[in-house]
Amino acid sequence: MKISVDYDLCESNALCMEIAPEVFEVRDDNFLYVLDESPAQAVWPQVEDALRACPKGAISIED
Ligand code: SF4
């Protein structure tokens, strides 16, 4: 499984970073970076929480 972000929707509010900092990072340039598109299994619950928390619906998970 792979994490996908629609950067056109993302508003860089860093909510996903607060929930899953191993995976999502909003940097000083105010852009979101996905640090690991296919993280370890232990991190996936956080990724799913981040997906649900994103107010823009910008995060998706691809098979
Ligand atoms: S929670 Fe959504 S809108 Fe906010 S930075 Fe993450 S992907 Fe972007």
From TrEMBL:
Alphabetical keyword list: 3Fe-4S, Electron transport, Iron, Iron-sulfur, Metal-binding, Transport
A single MF term (Gene Ontology): electron transfer activity
Alphabetical list of InterPro entries matching this protein: 3Fe4S_ferredoxin, Fe-S_cluster_ET
Top-level division of the source organism's lineage: Bacteria
Matching Pfam families: Fer4_13 (PF13370)
Signal peptide: none
Record bears the keyword Iron: yes
Keyword Protein biosynthesis: no
Cofactor: [3Fe-4S] cluster
Job description of the protein: Ferredoxins are iron-sulfur proteins that transfer electrons in a wide variety of metabolic reactions.
PANTHER family with a match to the protein in the record: FERREDOXIN
Protein's name according to its UniProt entry: Ferredoxin
Organism per entry: Sinosporangium album
